[in-house]
Structure prediction request, 166 residues.
Amino acid sequence: MKKALVYITLKEGVLDPQGKTVQHSLDTLGYAGVKEVRVGKYLELLIEDEGAVEAQVEEMCEKLLANPVIENYTYTIEEVVTL
Amino acid sequence: MKKALVYITLKEGVLDPQGKTVQHSLDTLGYAGVKEVRVGKYLELLIEDEGAVEAQVEEMCEKLLANPVIENYTYTIEEVVTL
Prediction:
């Protein structure tokens, strides 16, 4: 078993209204030092290891998990140790 | 300036319908090896460094960014180098 950790963020220059809202809320709560907030996604995928897991994850990001037009993605893959 | 990277995940045992939907979609696309998907949030906060940034981020997570009843959060803080 492998675990893929996928991080998806909006590309620079793409407006992030959700981030703006969070920043505004933080400002209202008194955290005026917060100058920018960008909200992204974080996914954990548990994948049966039949080889080529990395290529699969890359493909899944391109096809479904991220929108490559406006989002960047990175991922790390770790071994799941079952005792 | 500091940049806080905040990772928010659902606690174990908390149902994740969004993750289930993603898993189902991946299955439909032919990725039958994906056994579980959990969807979380990833936030990047740009914070003016007036000291105690870590304590501030912790507080923001507790108060607004995460729901401590059903979510776990972790964060890392890095220095932003402006040239």
Summary: Chain A has a mean pLDDT of 95. Chain A touches chain B at residues 1, 7-9, 19, 22, 25-26, 29, 31, 33-50, 56, 60, 63-65 (CB under 8 Å).
